[in-house]
Amino acid sequence: MKKFFKLSSALLVASLMATGFYACNTPNEEVDPISENTTIPSELLQKLEAADFNINTVRPTTFLGEAGYLVEGDQFLSNDFINNELGINESASTPEQYRTSYLVKSLPRTITVSIDPVLGSSAETAINNAIAMYNELDITLNFQRVAYSTRRNQRADIVVESFYELEDADGFITAGIAAGFPNRRGNPANSFGINTRYVELLNEFFTTSDVEARLAGTMAHEIGHCIGLRHSDYQTRESCGQNINEGWAGVGAIHIAGTPTGSDFTSLMQSCGPANVFNANDKIALETIY
What we know:
Elements: E1 3-6, H1 42-50, E2 59-63, E3 66-71, E4 75-78, H2 79-84, E5 109-115, H3 121-135, E6 141-145, E7 158-163, E8 172-178, E9 191-195, H4 196-205, H5 208-226, H6 280-289
Helix pairs in contact: 3-5
């Protein structure tokens, strides 16, 4: 999901949260900016509502050449995912849940990752550090940095794309957005976006090492979604000062053995941070499911 940072009048970052954005990608073309349509079929809204999504802010868009919808402000769902993989919640959500129903399969497995060079050198270092965070764990996934390409047949398994979005009137800025969770075929979500405006602000007000640490935390959070982790406070979003249950969300919300069943305030997977590294429970979660 996405990480929000609230900026004070001095534009100091106070808190965060994470996930996916939109750009077009075809086999032989450069990635284009967001593309939006205008009409939303009523049957599609019914499917999203049946899967516990808030349908009041649904908007059509395309991301990496796939048509789909931005749901709840921070999650891209392709038409293929909605039609073929989105389930219906037939039971109430409970707080004891952390991962999605589908996880990455064909283990052990190497997952390639690339990053849009537009994001700059600090982001390049940050993705290397985020990858290292995962590779230091005792898991059956290995992450490998590869060259960025906009051609479909040369794309990495997970692509870090850039997008630009200003902070809102309340001083919140979206740091990143991820394009979903693993699919039923056992592949990770294929991308997430990092807000270049957020990178600009970090570079203006923080040291290089601080910028790299904050970006690495955001990217590691987004990768967590791509491989099946839900927010550790998904049932309340209290790290964002809210009391909202993200619910089952059509992808599942399953408690991971050995981890807390309530909010974990130092978890990297909190909705609004502010952690930049895995805590002990994050490591248990990842080493349990992988």
